[in-house]
Amino acid sequence: MGRKMDKKNKAKQTIYSNEKSGHWILMAVGFFFCLPFIFLASTIFQEVSVGEYGILFTLLFPLVGSALIFSSWKMRKSFLYFGPTPLTPSPLMGQVGGQIGGRIAINKPWQERNLDITLSCLHTYSTGSGDNSRSHTDIVWQAHDKPLDRANSSGSVLEFVFDVPANKPTEDTHNGRGSITWQVTVKGIIADQEFNRSWKIPTQVGSEHSSIIIPNTHKEAAHSAKLKQAESSIEQQIHTQETALGLDIVSDQGRNKSMSIMMTLFGAVFTAVGCFLFFQAVQGEAMLWLMAPIFFAVGALILCYGIFLLGRKLECKIIDDQVHTRRSFFGKVIYTRQGKLTSPDQLILKSTMTSTHNGIKTEYMGVYATININDQNGSLKKEIKLVEGIEGRPAGEAMMRKLTDALIVNNNNLKGELEAL
Fold first, then answer.
1. Which residue of 89, 140, 184, 207 shows the fewest CB atoms closer than 10 Å?
2. Where in the sequence is the domain holding 27, given as residue range(s)?
């Protein structure tokens, strides 16, 4: 009886976005950084007047605080521009094993716009204790779609429905540490302004379906739009050129810069900390001999991998029934591979890396081929990489379709040539 009452309390007719009060937190932190400067301003000026310029570093605090306050003002301005954007769930309790759906009201007239909606199951937990406590959020499951976007009497409304697998956790069924949250996120451009809102959805295990009916025409249009978006994305990311004999593919140097630079900087910081700890250990801090190698080793590995991502380049040529690849690093060739590639069944799409930004997980994909390589020990079956660093699984699947089509065309051409002999 108590559990039923709890679920009724959790179910809400209207859910407001997480951004409703987020700006207040940012503003409070900003004022926290700025307040000490107000009381210490006269002291700072006195210290500077006698040549103690080191105290000027304390000005970083009000600068950071001012930046946070400005960011909170922009968040509030954006929130007011689109309105409260209430979400009406259908069903009231999201069904894990059924459907999660809803309607989102936007105080802006409808116009042609490209919006993406994501449903995420998030696992939030803490590690460490006391001052060393850290909060982490892992994405357990995620699905993407295009919402049904239409006009209504007061502006416009978004409608969505997701089919949810039965084997995913809810807050009630989760037995491990931390908590489970189901969240809906909508991103895109509305009236030339960036729109980014998220809502927490109460869930339970069940098979109930939404009362919202998404027309088949919209589903087909959304599927077509996803395919076109993936095709456009792969064309921008990977240079491909059809030749008389096959296909040339170049995974160029310098792509995925944000990921590469972030890893390089992160690795450099850890490596520098490791070097500093080694220096302190040499000075007599014996306990630091335990920490220094860990920081240095982890930092050096991340730094090296970040530099590799910045400098790597992979070229692939498919000529008739042969595939040739060449790996280079900052223009210097490291190795080449060659083998027979005749069937799409030899192709494998793999997720090589993932990143999470604003609750959205992005997979970085690679396309591999299983081929026979001849070496000193005879024929050896091996996977070689044909394409790398593809941002997004849909773009990776588009690359697979392009390679599959090229192999089918090549096989048909070779078959025609053999029949003509």
1. 207
2. 18-82
Name 241's bridge partners.
248
Query: pLDDT tens, 386-406?
Result: 999 999 999 999 999 999 998
Do 105 and 116 share a domain, yes or no?
yes
Q: For residue 156, how far is the Cα from the chain centroid?
A: 28
Q: How far is CA 212 from the centre of its chain?
A: 29
The tens digit of pLDDT for each residue in 337-373 reads 999 998 899 999 999 988 887 778 889 999 999 998 7
Count of domains forming the chain: 3
First vs last Cα of the chain: how many Å apart? 81
* Crossing angle of helices 216-237 and 393-420, rounded to 10°: 80
Q: Are residues 104 and 69 in the same domain?
A: no
What's the token pair of residue 76? 């509030």
Compute the distance between CA of residue 16 and CA of residue 105 in angstroms, rounded to an integer. Answer: 10
| Domain assignment of residue 391, yes or no | yes
- How far is the C-alpha of 77 from the C-alpha of 74, rounded, in Å? 5
pLDDT digits (tens, 9 = 90+) for 295-318: 999 999 999 999 999 999 999 999
Strands 203-205 and 94-96, how do they pair? parallel
Tokens for 188?
């895109």
419 found inside a domain: yes
281-294 per-position pLDDT tens digit: 888 877 788 888 99
- 71 shares a domain with 220: no
In terms of Cα–Cα distance, which of 181, 174, 223 is closest to 202? 181
Strands 347-357 and 332-340 turn out to be unpaired
Q: How many CB atoms lie within 10 A of CB 135?
A: 10
Could you tell me if 67 and 196 lie in one domain? no
Spatial strand order in the sheet of 360-375: 347-357, 360-375, 378-391
The pLDDT-based confidence of 378 (bands split at 50, 70, 90) is low
**Identity of the amino acid at 383:** E
Both 267 and 197 in a single domain? Answer: no
Given 82, 107, 124, the domain boundary residue is 82
DSSP state, 253? T
* 69, 31 contact by CB (below 8 A): yes
Query: Residue 363 falls within a domain, yes or no?
Result: yes
Vertex 96: Cα angle to 95 and 100 (nearest 5): 45
Which residues have a Cβ under 8 Å from the Cβ of 64 and sit 6 or more positions away? 30, 33
